[in-house]
Write a structure and sequence with these properties.
With 259 residues, the protein is of the alpha/beta class. Helix content is 29%, strand content 20%. Its EC number is 4.3.99.3.
Length: 259
């Protein structure tokens, strides 16, 4: 069961929902663009639905306006297996751990020998075989205040701010799998919160968190925006002894879908 009480599937529920299905927004083959596995050919399984609403979300149609087709686990596996050169699968979203069926999919992928990365906001824990938990805790700067809300009304701000950090879920995720903590950074003002969160998490987690496990990633879903943020974020990584991660897919393909 999820640790967080913030799970909400209302925006992806429907009469055509299969009992063992997942709402799939995209399923495609590309290069991993972020983190320690950047550049690795991978099949991406992107689920729809999220319990948070980052104002800069780069997968808008999984959160603010979710779109999807319901596929059962066998149908997803059939699609994944078409990409014969890929042995890495990335389960992403939205928030993929919102859906209980994600566990069945991860178990089936593990049985077939795939390396699995789960890209998660760290607010939900599920007991599942995960090779790399790519955990991206959301900072205050992600909150969709009325002036930053892409829909303009700010109705998600209070809920997002309430639910964006769950230390218990974060600790369990990093205790159960190899992990990376990937922070989306806008500028230097994000660093005090990152440092405070790391201090809190190190106190409650039963495994060490090395500075090498912490990745700073520039905020930006387009090449133009990355031009504004990446140099400063790279300098922050060097200043604090953390790792810098590019957004390779944005550099290569800008904001094109299925990348």
């Amino acid at each position: 069961m999820p640790v967080s009480d913030s799970v909400d599937r209302e925006d992806v529920a429907g009469d055509d929902q299969p009992a063992d299905g997942l709402p799939i927004n995209e399923l495609f083959y590309s290069l991993q663009g972020e983190g320690t596995l950047a550049g690795v050919p991978s099949v991406f399984v992107r689920t729809s639905g999220c319990n948070l609403r980052c104002w800069f979300c780069d997968s808008y149609h999984t959160s603010w306006e979710p779109t999807h087709a319901w596929l059962d686990v066998e149908e997803i596996l059939t699609e994944v297996e078409q990409y014969e050169n890929a042995d890495h699968v990335v389960l992403t979203g939205g928030e993929p751990l919102l859906h209980e069926t994600s566990v069945a999919l991860l178990e089936a992928l593990d049985d077939r020998g795939y390396h699995t990365t789960v890209e998660t906001n760290g607010t939900i824990y599920r007991d599942a075989p995960i090779d790399l938990a790519s955990v991206s805790p959301k900072l205050e700067s992600s909150t969709p205040t009325p002036e930053r809300d892409p829909k303009g009304d700010g109705e998600w701000a209070a809920r997002h701010e309430r639910d964006r950090i769950d230390l218990e879920a974060l600790a369990r995720l990093i205790e159960d799998s190899d992990f990376q903590l990937k922070f989306v950074v806008t500028d230097e003002s994000d660093m005090p919160e990152i440092l405070a969160l790391l201090e809190d998490l190190r106190e409650v987690a039963a495994v060490p968190i090395r500075d090498d496990d912490v990745l700073l990633m520039p905020e930006g879903a387009t090449r133009e925006r990355l031009e504004e943020t990446r140099a400063d974020v790279a300098q922050l990584a060097m200043d604090h002894g953390f790792r810098y991660t590019p957004r390779l897919h944005v550099d290569l393909w800008n904001d094109a879908p299925e990348t």
